[in-house]
């Protein structure tokens, strides 16, 4: 689903990842737990997730402060460590200020 | 593949889309044509594409001017019209300035 974000400016965290070949259920469980937890954080505005050979998760936030708080959340920290140790071969996180947006709908 | 972008600041265009149920080959052909064409444009820095129930394409650009030129490219304009008429049920485009990034690699 396309996230229903407010009028810009707001922030996007673009998380692009390549998984290891280890395929266990714990990843899907943790991913769901993290998205549910993120939704409860101050400043969270929405998220979009797509995965095929690369995974792209874009989460939207009110400001840099809320992004920082989420990055440092203790449960999220555990997930980040497991990500590095187990699930991801590589990833890149980009923090970007959304300046303009426009939509199309049939 | 994760795009090898330069040190920030640079720009990201986050294009999130929901397809119509019309499934023809012309979409895949056009998508490939567009990514090849984008790569030749002034200011293009890279792109990442993932699709499952939602499609997310993030393209990276040197500045707003290069994004505008690509949006107005005549072949891209034809693709945009076909997108609205035929391939997409809805989409949202967000233009964002990447301020920070960090990477992990095993």
TrEMBL record, chains A, B:
Keywords: Monooxygenase, Oxidoreductase. Residues 10-81 form the ABM domain. The lineage of its organism: Bacteria, Pseudomonadati, Bacteroidota, Flavobacteriia, Flavobacteriales. The keyword rRNA-binding does not apply. Pfam families: ABM (PF03992). The keyword NAD does not apply. It comes from Mesohalobacter halotolerans. This is Antibiotic biosynthesis monooxygenase. It comes from the Bacteria. GO terms for molecular function: monooxygenase activity. Gene3D superfamilies: 3.30.70.100. Signal peptide: none annotated.
